[in-house]
Amino acid sequence: MDYVDYYKILGLDKTATTKDIKNAYRKLARKYHPDLNPNDKEAKKNFQQINEANEVLSDPEKRKKYDQYGNDWQHADEFEKAKQYQGQSSYSHQQRHSGTQSESDFSDFFESMFGGATSTGRSRQVRYRGEDYHAELHLNLTDAYKTNKQTITVNGKNIRITIPAGIENGQTLKIPEYGGQGINGGPNGDLYITFSIANHPSIKRLGNNLFTTVDLDLYTAVLGGDITIETLSGKVKLKVKPETQNGSKIKLKGKGFPVYKNEGQYGDLYVTYNIKIPTNLTEKQKVLFTELSKS
Question: Is 110's pLDDT higher than 50?
Fold first, then answer.
């Protein structure tokens, strides 16, 4: 497997601080976000790599293992055990064979690198880790707005998962040990689920903020008044100021998207007014507009 440099992906070096990693991730995630790069497969791939790099480097324990073992960081514990086993085996054989290391020593060490071995009499069977599985789960924006449970089927097996509110389009979650079955008692592989979140017909998401456009009739725009709009959390009543201009924007604080794994925290909702010019005017209405234009 080719070496994947998570530091390079985030544009950092190994001396980067936790804050550096967080800032780099946010900047690149915004740049390559699938919503800003529709139908761009390369941007989607970059976004997934950025998420993967952040998942590892933002976790101190995972980062430590990655720095030491690179691509094989997930097997760090097995490697450490293998080193201990090699040392113990080498010492034992030196005592029995006066410093001569037998071929079985290398065999034992090799087996331990793949998760250890089980013994039956003098025979040994190597334990192999199961294959990782990858799946894609499609959601709509309303589903991703709230924490919900879904049942997915992988290789004929139903798996019940909890999806936290605020999941990102293109984000990947790992379900440990739900991949392929290990061989000879080895550990199971993991299941990686990538989420594909469909666009909403009238609401656009960018990070934790939401954006929508609301049609406003000319009379309400000029005179002001109350309107009701639909949001992902339900209906909201707004007071429109008199003489509101076309393209005017307002911000509804806390009415945006939930922040991933931060219960009770939400982004903002930005509303843009689109003033509709009346059509099919009656003769009386035309006269009134004419008089108004002359005043």
Answer: no
